[in-house]
């Protein structure tokens, strides 16, 4: 606040920049383009969700004006929403999405905190090198990582997961054509995809834990685990909560993993909600229902994020600056 | 160019560190051994250190194993088997670069016939440029090569306009948000932070609407329209990032320039832009990678002839029987440069990537 206004005070003496709100003009182009590609599709999606849009009628109209009339699609009121909300596949997809959020966030938290504890441990040598190696997956494009993991869980010859199972003397698993095995595969991949971010945040939080606290606890005779639960965990709680909020949101919207692995299969059982909406529209040509599902998903993303912003105080930085 | 010299200096420091690490470790080990011999250090201590380090190394190796596996699969001509008749094998048996040649394909500049008519005379100069072959795939026994170059070109023609458009939108906005006070400033910032968190999933949820609009306007299968979309999605996060970076530049520099009588545009071009070079580089890389690595929207909007690299990669894996070596080589050729850029970025441009801005 103060830094910005000081410059403004100086700069205001220059006649050209007399009106301070003129600076809004710098921001508007970006805001406008962004809204054009985010806000307009939202409105359009809301519109489509009240029609019986299919490729046949949606793209039938002539000229650019047909955009505004949704082609030849007919208004059907709340029919799509009723159809979606009474469809057991939707509730299945909805349930599996929240289950995925729960399991994958737990897995990510456990994995990342353990990794972070190990690479900050006093006894380990070469921690810096290990740390920079360990966050490598963050630099890989998501589509690369996920296709590689698709290969790992492949039931075709040379799939890595089955090779490991076989070398341990266990039978092979057809990962992607069994529901819960596919779900496990999703979780493992999601954890591998997201742990670097969590580890970075946890490591920097761990380094901020005052040494004196640990020493005091040691003098009092606390063991490793009681020190972890009573000293370390309370001190890193806030940044880790911040990281888990973000990663939970990422899990909720996970699209690529189910889509690349087996398109949310087998038999549409594992379609996370975003995949479900996408497939309903593009694989089954039900644009109206797909739009309704997407609206429900967007509403949940928004509510979820709003809740998390309130709880996690993400916006503190904005109000202070 | 202070950024470049900074990078060079850091690179040198890194090299020195790497070279000195074994020396330091040896010195430390010697000291410990002598301490143990003299009875000053209890022998359990170095053993614990050794055990913990070994455990951590195993963990790191386990986490990195998928990357190693894909590299091995690419190098072994047929497929990446860690399990052969002789038990576990961690090195490819017959390493071959053939899959990579399949990916890259022919690198041949074809022969052109150039003829120039000199005006007002009858003289014409005809030149046949020689064919330059850097790499001829058929020499290595690869007959049909991949479409990698085609995908690469598509990706490039999507990403470069994305970067140009996005930078034009982001840089002025982040300067204004960082240094000026105006109406709605806080509301815009708050929206941007929120959307930064929501990000990618929202884009996919809105894809039905976007697709329908694009098809009706006739913009689907247009690479430029796709780049505009990517630039738009890149705006909130990168504006926020660059704004946070610019907040870190001391205001006194600008005050000094203003006192010296510099007009506002010179304050920007000679103080703000040079000082935020690292932040700009970070944003540049992020925006470029947005277009380079995005998959879902590209796959939905683009036709087969315009597929970008990620879509090309996916089309390999979705086949029923995966050609392991070729798939791995393709994936690595796609991802390795990004990985290197990222490694540099996180090490040398880390100033631009502070999460501190998120928390105030």
Structure description:
Chain B: Its main location: membrane. Chain B: The chain crosses the membrane at residues 47-71, 151-177, 189-212, 271-292, 324-345. Chain A has 15 helices and no strands. Chain A has helices at 2-12, 24-48, 55-58, 79-85, 88-120, 127-134, 142-152, 160-167, 179-207, 211-219, 224-252, 256-262, 273-282, 287-312, 316-320. In chain A, helix 2 crosses helix 14 (287-312). The longest helix of chain A is centred in the N-terminal third of the chain and has 33 residues, at 88-120. Chain B is mostly helical and 360 residues long. In chain B, strands 1-2 form a two-stranded antiparallel ribbon. In chain B, a hairpin with a 2-residue loop joins strand 1 (83-84) and strand 2. In chain B, helix 2 (44-75) crosses helix 14 (324-348), helix 3 (98-104) packs across helix 14 and helix 5 (185-198) packs across helix 8 (223-247). Chain B is extended. Chain B starts with a helix and ends with a helix.
Question: Notable features of this structure?
Answer:
heterodimer; A: 321 residues; mainly alpha; MetI-like fold; 15 helices; 69% helix; 0% strand; B: 360 residues; 3 domains; two-stranded antiparallel sheet; two-stranded antiparallel ribbon; disordered C terminus
């Amino acid at each position: 606040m103060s830094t910005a206004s000081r410059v403004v005070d100086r700069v205001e003496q220059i006649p050209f920049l007399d009106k301070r709100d003129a600076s809004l003009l710098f921001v508007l182009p970006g805001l406008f383009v962004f809204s054009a590609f985010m806000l307009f599709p939202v409105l359009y999606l809301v519109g489509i969700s009240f029609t019986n849009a299919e490729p046949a009628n949606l793209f039938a109209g002539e000229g650019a004006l047909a955009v505004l009339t949704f082609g030849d699609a007919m208004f059907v009121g709340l029919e799509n929403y009723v159809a979606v909300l009474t469809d057991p596949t939707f509730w299945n997809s909805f349930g599996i999405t929240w289950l995925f959020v729960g399991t994958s966030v737990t897995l990510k938290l456990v994995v990342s905190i353990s990794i972070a504890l190990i690479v900050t441990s006093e006894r380990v040598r070469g921690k810096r090198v290990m740390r920079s190696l360990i966050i490598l997956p963050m630099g890989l494009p998501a589509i690369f990582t996920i296709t590689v993991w698709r290969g790992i869980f492949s039931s075709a010859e040379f799939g890595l997961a089955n090779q490991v199972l076989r070398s341990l003397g266990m039978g092979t698993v057809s990962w992607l054509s069994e529901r819960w095995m596919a779900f496990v595969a999703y979780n493992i991949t999601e954890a591998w995809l997201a742990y670097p971010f969590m580890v970075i945040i946890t490591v920097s939080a761990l380094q901020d834990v005052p040494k004196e606290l640990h020493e005091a606890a040691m003098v009092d005779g606390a063991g490793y685990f009681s020190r972890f639960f009573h000293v370390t965990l309370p001190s890193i709680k806030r940044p880790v909560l911040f990281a888990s909020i973000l990663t939970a949101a990422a899990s909720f919207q996970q699209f690529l993993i189910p889509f690349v692995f087996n398109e949310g299969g087998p038999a549409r059982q594992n379609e996370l909600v975003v995949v479900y909406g996408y497939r309903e529209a593009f694989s089954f040509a039900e644009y109206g229902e797909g739009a309704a599902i997407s609206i429900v998903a967007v509403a949940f993303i928004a509510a979820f994020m709003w809740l998390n912003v309130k709880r996690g105080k993400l916006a503190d930085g904005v109000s202070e600056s | 160019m202070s950024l470049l010299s900074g990078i060079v200096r850091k690179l040198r420091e890194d090299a020195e560190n790497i070279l000195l690490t074994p020396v330091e470790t040896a010195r430390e080990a010697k000291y410990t051994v002598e301490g143990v011999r003299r009875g000053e250090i209890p022998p359990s201590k170095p053993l614990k250190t050794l055990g913990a380090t070994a455990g951590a190394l195993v963990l790191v190796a386990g986490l990195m194993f998928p990357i190693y596996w894909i590299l091995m699969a690419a190098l072994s001509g047929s497929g990446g088997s860690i399990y052969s008749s002789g038990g576990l094998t961690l090195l490819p048996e017959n390493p071959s670069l053939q899959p990579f040649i399949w990916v890259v394909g022919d690198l041949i500049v074809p022969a052109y016939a150039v003829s120039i008519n000199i005006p007002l005379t009858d003289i014409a100069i005809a030149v046949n440029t020689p064919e330059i072959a850097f790499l001829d795939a058929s020499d290595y026994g690869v007959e049909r090569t991949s479409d990698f170059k085609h995908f690469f070109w598509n990706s490039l023609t999507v990403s470069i306009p994305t970067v140009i458009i996005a930078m034009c939108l982001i840089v002025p906005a982040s300067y204004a948000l960082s240094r000026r006070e105006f109406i709605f400033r806080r509301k815009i910032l708050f929206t941007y932070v929120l959307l930064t968190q929501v990000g990618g999933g929202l884009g996919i949820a809105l894809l039905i609407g976007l697709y329908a609009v694009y098809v009706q306007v006739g913009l689907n299968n247009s690479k430029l329209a796709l780049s505009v979309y990517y630039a738009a999605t890149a705006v909130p996060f990168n504006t926020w990032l660059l704004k946070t970076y610019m907040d870190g530049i001391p205001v006194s520099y600008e005050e000094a320039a203003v006192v010296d009588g510099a007009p506002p545009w010179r304050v920007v071009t000679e103080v703000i832009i040079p000082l935020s070079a690292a932040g700009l580089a970070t944003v540049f890389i992020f925006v470029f990678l947005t277009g380079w690595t995005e998959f879902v929207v590209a796959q939905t909007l683009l036709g087969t002839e315009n597929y970008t690299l990620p879509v090309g990669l996916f089309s390999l894996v979705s086949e029923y029987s995966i050609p392991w070596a070729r798939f791995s080589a393709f994936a690595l050729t796609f991802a390795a440069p990004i990985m290197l850029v990222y490694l540099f970025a996180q090490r040398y441009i880390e100033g631009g990537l502070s999460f501190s801005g998120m928390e105030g």
